[in-house]
Amino acid sequence: MTWLFRPFRLFALLLISTGSMVALSDAHDYTFGSVSIVHPWAMPTAPGARTGAAFLKISNRGKTDIRLTGGFSHFAGGVEIHSMSIDNGIMRMRHLQDGLVIPAGGAAEFRPGGLHLMLTGLQRPLVLHDRVPLTLHFEGGAKISVVLFVDQPVGPPTHQGH
Q1: Any idea what DSSP says for residue 5?
Q2: Residues 81-93: what's their mean pLDDT?
């Protein structure tokens, strides 16, 4: 078991020993052990767009840090973690190649204008009310599957049809 890093061992073993399944806690939130995923969604994309953005909140109620390393979706060629910031009036986007640490007892919120999951190589545009399967990958081999709902980025979520 040398592939498991010591701080992530309990988290990874828990996920792997139960088949990496995630329990659906309500219509749109996922909980597994000490990790919860709240409101995973993506913005609609323009026709012909090859990239899209997805958002969610990951909470870690555990006693050790966890690291999100990326993901997978059949709808995209890749799923990367990106940060976005404004520096001297210039928007900068950065691929977090080493992933993102969610501290013990903490959370990471992916939202427009900040952290987001970049869906690259889209197979087709993301259309309002689509449901997009996504598997989040964590350090140590753990995986959590969720469904992104394609929703409007402005105002309260519509969530029509789910």
Answers
A1: -
A2: 90
Question: Residue 91: which pLDDT band, with cuts at 50, 70 and 90?
Answer: confident
Q: What's the pTM?
A: 0.77
Sequence-distant (6+) residues with CB within 8 A of 104 are: 60, 62, 63, 64, 65
Contact 30, 144 (CB under 8 A): yes
Q: CATH topology for 14-150?
A: Immunoglobulin-like (2.60.40)
Rounded Cα gap, residues 63 and 121, in angstroms: 36
DSSP state of 49: -
What's the token pair of residue 15? 């996920």
Q: Report CA torsion sign: 13, 26, 123, 126.
A: negative
Domain parsing of the chain, residue ranges: 14-150
